[in-house]
Amino acid sequence: MICGIAQFVLWFFFGLGFFSAIAALVLGLVSLRQIRQRAEGGRGMAIAGVVLGGLGILGGILLIALLIAVGRSGSFHYHIGNVGN
């Protein structure tokens, strides 16, 4: 769950939230398996880690797709003054 929460900070400040989201998803799934095998507590936090990790990965994929779409559309052309006159 900590990796799932940390991903939001890492997305905004360093752009590394995708790696933290992957860690949150993997560790959450491993935790769920161990909780089931050992009959321990913490299932809610493991589910929260899985959900936050999944949302972070989905958000990262959407962000990359958005950047590719904007880059291909060519909408970032800057024109400063009359250069040819």
Index terms:
85 residues, mainly alpha, 3 helices, 76% helix, 0% strand
Please tell me how large the radius of gyration is: 20 Å
Q: How many separate helices?
A: 3
Helicity level, as a percent range? over 70%
User: What order do the SSEs take from the amino end to the carboxyl end, as H and E?
Assistant: HHH
What fraction of the residues are assigned to beta strands by DSSP? Answer: under 5%
Task: Outline the low-pLDDT stretches.
Answer: none
Oligomer: single chain
* Envelope shape: elongated
On the 0 to 100 scale, the average pLDDT is 80
Q: Structural class given helices, strands, pairing?
A: mainly alpha
Number of strands: 0
Q: Alpha-carbon distance between the termini?
A: 60 Å
Main beta sheet: none
Question: What report would you give on this structure?
Answer:
The chain has 85 residues and is mainly α. Helices cover 76% and strands 0% of the residues. It has helices spanning 2-13, 17-38, 43-73. It starts with a helix and ends in a 12-residue tail after the last helix.
